[in-house]
């Protein structure tokens, strides 16, 4: 007899389909005392796509990411991540949701007392029963992906700012999450170093099919990620090239102003916007 | 009641509530998986072996000063030979546990608060949570275990070194015969004193570690906040140790003996 299809099976089936919504924010509100941080924020992240949240400092961008991963709880509204309502889950239940979410924090947030190897493999070493050889292999693999294998035994303090951010990306991708959240991953980096971090985001999105939510106020990086794509060239070498129009449309921008979404659309629509705030922000 | 005072009481009640919640969560985490064994062992080493020097030195000099001071007083009554009795009773019941705990507050409490505070302000605690680790299990439980179990061990060592320091002074400064000193040390030791002296450091170790963890995890305001958290952890830990000393003593006098 065929196994009956349960709700969770149905959710899994839907999430496996092309164009499935992996993150849904539905009228989310949050205030700290009198200060409203997010007001009626509604958006959807489609599987394999990228959403870039732009806005000035204090506009609520990072807060939205923290709500998504359950580090903060919204006052009202509904938040779905991979078919689970994270706004209703307990801290213990959230651990299962976080198993499929990788987050890169501002400044990297690497563990000071651990080496690059231990940082990257942290979740696999500490939170899984995988054999050590397998974890070591995976750590070396992800460090190879971001071209930092030679730094594997170094401490975070021995790395440059850009290297620390890239190690943070490696740590977040080590357990193969399907959604990556980048919180100001390039802030404070020079343009050349920032591009190396942008390239890692593009590679993860296009080669590993990871859905991405990027929070930034660095326009250069936002547009770079939106207008470029990664592909395997001759002899399997990864190339970053200009994105095709279809690929470009897979990246959407959201502009937040004082906790309210004032724009949602692709790069072309953002450039064409006549909203004075957006025009001022882009200039 | 004036509004600022009301606000102060509300804030104090909130802090106590959050502290109790943290310690209850830590106790609950002791009996469920996952348990971070390596972190617990590392903390036992850091708090126990790492504090040995400071505890040895403070114990030694306390015992020596105690013998020297009490020798002068006892001379007035011609009771110099019983100096050992005074040193052992004072060290085991009061000075050993309290001074060791105060040394641990300075060394361990400040270290824990600074470490966890830095982790909070640099988003490492959030990173831990995002990676699926409960910070209470990973950070608080190992430190609490180390505090509870290493404070008594260090206290026993401090007691022994203090009494030995007292012997050095008694023998070479006060010219008290060694066998007389050691006989008087053991004569003053009653089992209830020993129990009291051993029970106190369990309470002190628990308080020092959990207060430091609580203060560290509630750090805000960047690096300046870390400095404040470190100071607060030492101040709150020291006051808690001295207050707990009084209450544990009252408990033993009232309910146990």
Describe the SSE topology.
The complex is a heterodimer of chains A (283) and B (257).
Chain A: H1 7-16, E1 21-32, E2 35-46, E3 50-55, H2 61-69, E4 76-81, E5 84-85, H3 91-98, E6 101-104, H4 116-120, H5 122-127, H6 132-145, H7 161-173, E7 179-183, H8 191-207, E8 211-216, H9 219-227, E9 228-232, E10 238-242, H10 245-249, E11 251-257, E12 260-265, H11 267-272, H12 276-282
Parallel strand pairs in A: 3-8, 3-11, 6-7, 7-8
Antiparallel strand pairs in A: 1-2, 1-4, 4-5, 9-10, 11-12
Chain B: H1 3-30, H2 37-48, H3 52-75, H4 83-121, H5 124-130, H6 135-172, H7 178-187, H8 191-217, H9 222-256
Helix pairs in contact in B: 1-6, 2-6, 3-4, 3-6, 4-6, 4-7, 4-8, 4-9, 6-7, 6-8, 8-9
Descriptive terms for the model:
heterodimer; A: 283 residues; alpha/beta; four-stranded antiparallel sheet; 12 strands; B: 257 residues; mainly alpha; 9 helices; elongated
Account of the protein in words:
The complex is a heterodimer of chains A (283) and B (257). Chain A is an alpha/beta fold and 283 residues long. Chain A has twelve helices and twelve strands. Chain A has helices spanning 7-16, 61-69, 91-98, 116-120, 122-127, 132-145, 161-173, 191-207, 219-227, 245-249, 267-272, 276-282; strands spanning 21-32, 35-46, 50-55, 76-81, 84-85, 101-104, 179-183, 211-216, 228-232, 238-242, 251-257, 260-265. In chain A, strands 6-7-8-3-11-12 form a six-stranded mixed sheet, sandwiched between helices. Chain A has a four-stranded antiparallel sheet with strand order 2-1-4-5, with helices on one face. A two-stranded antiparallel ribbon of chain A has the order 9-10. Chain B contains nine helices and no strands. In chain B, helix 1 packs across helix 6 (135-172), helix 4 runs antiparallel to helix 6 (135-172) and helix 4 (83-121) packs across helix 7. Chain B is elongated and about 65 Å long. In chain B, 46% of the residues are buried. The interface between A and B is medium-sized, with 23 and 15 residues.
């Amino acid at each position: 007899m065929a196994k009956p299809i349960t709700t969770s099976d149905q959710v899994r089936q839907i999430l496996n389909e092309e164009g499935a919504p992996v993150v849904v924010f539905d009228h989310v509100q949050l205030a700290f005392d009198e200060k409203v941080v997010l007001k009626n924020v509604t958006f959807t992240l489609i599987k394999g796509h990228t959403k870039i949240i732009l806005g000035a400092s204090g506009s609520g961008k990072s807060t939205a990411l923290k709500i998504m991963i359950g580090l903060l709880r919204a006052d009202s509204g509904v938040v779905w991540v991979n078919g689970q309502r994270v706004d209703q889950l307990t801290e213990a239940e959230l651990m299962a949701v976080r198993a499929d979410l990788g987050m890169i924090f501002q400044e990297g947030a690497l563990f000071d007392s651990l080496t690059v190897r231990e940082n990257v493999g942290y979740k696999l070493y500490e939170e899984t029963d995988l054999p050590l050889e397998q974890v070591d292999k995976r750590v070396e693999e992800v460090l190879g992906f971001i071209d930092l294998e030679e730094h594997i035994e170094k401490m975070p303090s021995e790395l440059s700012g850009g290297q620390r951010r890239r190690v943070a990306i490696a740590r977040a991708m080590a357990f193969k999450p399907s959604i990556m959240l980048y919180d100001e991953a390039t802030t404070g980096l020079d343009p050349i170093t920032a591009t190396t971090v942008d390239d890692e985001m593009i590679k993860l999105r296009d080669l590993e099919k990871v859905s991405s939510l990027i929070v930034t106020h660095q326009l250069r990086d936002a547009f770079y990620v939106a207008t470029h794509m990664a592909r395997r060239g001759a002899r399997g070498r990864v190339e970053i090239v200009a994105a095709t129009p279809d690929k470009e449309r897979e990246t959407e921008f959201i502009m937040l102003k004082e906790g309210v979404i004032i724009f949602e659309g692709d790069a072309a629509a953002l450039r064409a916007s006549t909203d004075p705030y957006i025009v001022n922000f882009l200039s | 009641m004036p509004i600022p005072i009301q606000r102060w009481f509300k804030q104090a009640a909130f802090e106590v509530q959050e502290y109790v919640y943290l310690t209850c969560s830590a106790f609950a985490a002791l009996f469920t998986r996952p348990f971070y064994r390596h972190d617990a062992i590392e903390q036992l080493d850091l708090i126990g072996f790492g504090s040995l020097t400071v505890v040895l030195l403070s114990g030694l000099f306390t015992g020596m000063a105690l013998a020297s001071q009490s020798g002068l007083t006892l001379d007035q009554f011609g009771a110099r030979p019983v100096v050992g009795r005074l040193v052992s009773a004072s060290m085991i019941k009061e000075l050993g546990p309290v001074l060791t705990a105060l040394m641990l507050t300075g060394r361990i409490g400040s270290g824990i608060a600074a470490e966890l505070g830095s982790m909070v302000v640099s988003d490492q605690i959030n990173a831990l949570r995002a990676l699926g680790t409960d910070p209470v299990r990973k950070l608080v439980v190992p430190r609490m275990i180390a505090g509870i179990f290493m404070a008594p061990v260090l206290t026993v060592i401090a007691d022994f070194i203090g009494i030995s320091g007292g012997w050095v002074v008694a023998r070479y400064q006060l010219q008290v015969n060694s066998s007389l000193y050691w006989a008087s040390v053991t004569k003053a030791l009653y089992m209830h004193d020993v129990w009291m002296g051993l029970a106190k450091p369990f309470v002190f170790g628990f308080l020092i570690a959990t207060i430091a963890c609580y203060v560290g995890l509630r750090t805000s305001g960047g690096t300046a906040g870390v400095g404040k958290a470190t100071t607060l952890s030492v101040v709150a830990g020291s006051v808690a140790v001295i207050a707990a000393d009084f209450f544990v003593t009252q408990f033993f006098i009232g309910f146990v003996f």
